[in-house]
Design a protein that fits this description.
Helix content: 55-70%
Strand order of the largest sheet: 3-4-6-5
Largest sheet: 4 strands, antiparallel
Shape: elongated
Order of helices and strands: HEEEEHEEHH
Structural class: alpha+beta
Distance between the termini: 49 Å
Radius of gyration: 22 Å
Length: about 180
């Protein structure tokens, strides 16, 4: 029974971690190097993550500087950023790429909050599905006489407590992200 609960908790932890990773790529009004985590650059015939071909730094709250390790890649990096869904306009001086992060409009902030709420809801659904799988596993163990009815009931209660705790975590992560998006 304990292995079911441990496995379930591990899966729920991964769900919350994935939500945080997803939120990291949501653009807020502030500059962040994590915005570029999903950008791939065409580098010597292969698509490579931006952070593997350049140094991404944030010298100011609304400025990102990208310094390619190979100056020949500057055009490819610019192209990858322009074609991404970030809606950013990079400019280069031949050595580095500078990207000014414009403040978000009220409308765009509301869109991002809606997107964040959608991602959080998907995480809550995933957590509930993980709970359901855990409960099914407990029922199977009961049917196979590996645990007693009392153990199954206690395990089910423990899974529900876990689920409630992880849904609270998802809500807290969403609340923080909402606050970050809505700040001007």
């Amino acid at each position: 029974m304990q292995t079911v609960i441990t496995t379930t908790e591990d899966k729920m932890t991964k769900t919350v971690t994935n939500l945080k990773d997803g939120f990291a790529t949501l653009r807020t009004g502030r500059a962040s190097a994590t915005l570029f985590d999903k950008i791939r650059v065409d580098c010597y015939g292969e698509k490579s993550p931006l952070n593997q071909v350049a140094n991404v730094s944030v010298p100011e709250a609304r400025l990102i500087v990208i310094q390619p390790w190979d100056k020949n890649l500057i055009g490819e990096i610019e192209k990858a950023i322009r074609s991404s869904e970030l809606s950013l306009n990079p400019s280069n001086d031949g050595k580095v790429i500078r990207i000014a992060i414009p403040p978000l409009t009220e409308e765009r902030r509301k869109e991002l909050v809606k997107l964040a709420k959608n991602q959080a809801e998907q995480s809550r659904v995933a957590i509930r599905n993980i709970r359901r799988d855990g409960n099914e596993e407990l029922k199977k163990m009961l049917k196979d006489s590996a645990i007693t009815e009392d153990d199954e009931k206690k395990g089910s209660e423990d899974l529900q407590k876990l689920t409630d705790g992880y849904i609270d975590k998802v809500n807290k992560v969403l609340e923080e992200k909402e606050k970050e998006i809505m700040e001007v």
